Amino acid sequence: MTTIAVTGHMDLAESTVPLVQEELRDLLRDHQGDLVGVTCLARGSDTLFAEAVVEAGGRLVVILPSRDYRQAKVKPDHAPAFDRLAAAAEVVTMPYDTANRAAYEAANGELLKRADRLVAVWDGAPPSGKGGGTADTVEQARSAGVPVDVIWPRDARRGS
Question: Which domain holds residue 75?
Answer without folding.
Answer: 2-151
